[in-house]
Amino acid sequence: TYLIRKKLDRLIKDVTVNSLFSGYGFYQNNHLFGIMQSGVFYLRAEGDLAQQLERYGAAPCLASSNNALSLSRYYRLPQTITENDILYREFLHQSIEQVKQQKIDFQLARKKRIKELPNLSIKHERLLLKVNITDVNQLRRIGAEKAYILAKKQGFSINLDFYWNLVAALKNIHVSQLPEAQKEHALAKLNNYLRQEGLRSEKA
User: Fold this and answer.
1) Based on CB atoms within 10 Å of each CB, which residue in 65, 80, 121, 140 is the most buried?
2) Which CATH number goes with the domain that contains 160?
3) What average pLDDT does range 107-122 have in this prediction?
């Protein structure tokens, strides 16, 4: 456990380990991304990420009768990954981001009205209703970029503050917590959509 934690801490930092049923859980900022069973480390992955790992030869953890976790989503990594720091770090980051997104999805699924989201008020809800975005699920499906463009095309006087509020709301965080790197990525994504629609790009 000490050796794998030391390596993970070198690759991604701030790794903590807690006892977990018949093994150990590996966390970063309270996000469980890996487990250790019988001295073997397994990385959590689902969907496309799991398929990527399988293409490299990763194998799912086999559940035993005394396991309280669903272990089919945890994968034993081959040496082609664990001995390549760049590749290993990338898969660790993807796993943690997947766990974060699943938590956000779970939290947002419990909310129905748009005004229940962080940063968004009844004013935002009414504006979005006018472009036929009626609830949280619909806003999640459409995304912040397309919602912004729909409002722009309808002639509403909105600016990047409106967009940042949407982006942060869909991450279930206050807009002040949106990191600059994420804002830069989101702005590039928005401007790509704007160009496709023949609209003027936005500047930070």
Assistant:
1) 140
2) 1.10.150.20
3) 91
Q: Which domain holds residue 57?
A: 2-108
How distant, in Å, are the alpha carbons of 34, 144, 158, 201 from that of 119? 33, 13, 15, 24
The CA-atom distances, in angstroms, between 27 and each of 32, 36, 70, 135 are: 4, 12, 17, 33
Q: Give CA–CA dist 102/68, Å, rounded.
A: 19
Q: How many domains does the chain have?
A: 2
DSSP 180-196: HHHHHHHHHHHHHHHHH
Dihedral (Cα; 141, 143, 149, 150), 10-degree rounding:
30
Q: Which residue, of 87, 108, 129, is where some domain finishes?
A: 108
pLDDT digits (tens, 9 = 90+) for 136-148: 999 999 999 999 9
d(CA 184, CA 94): 19
Q: What pTM was computed for the model?
A: 0.69
